[in-house]
Amino acid sequence: MDSGVKELQHYTWPGNVRQLQHLIERLTILAGRVDGETVLDALTAMESRDRPVETLADAQEDQIRKVLTATGGNKSKAAQILGIERKTLYRKLERMKL
Length: 98
Known about the structure:
The chain has 98 residues and is an all-alpha fold. 73% of the residues lie in helices and 0% in strands. The protein contains six helices and no strands. The N and C termini lie far apart (36 Å).
């Protein structure tokens, strides 16, 4: 955990406290730990999300895929993390042809 905290302390935050809060929540929910490697992976993923995306639908599909991968395909857990109902996730997956 110490190395994870050090990584967070050395990261130059763009001034968005909500971003830090979401990162900590995501680390806790998805990884269950805050070690150096996990923090670096999460920061890299966060930075890649800051790049422009073609459309909102593309961004949404990308996020759904990432969360499903992180949960090992557990749709109930993925829906919880995404903040949507499970039936909504199923509809979105159907549209995505997954």
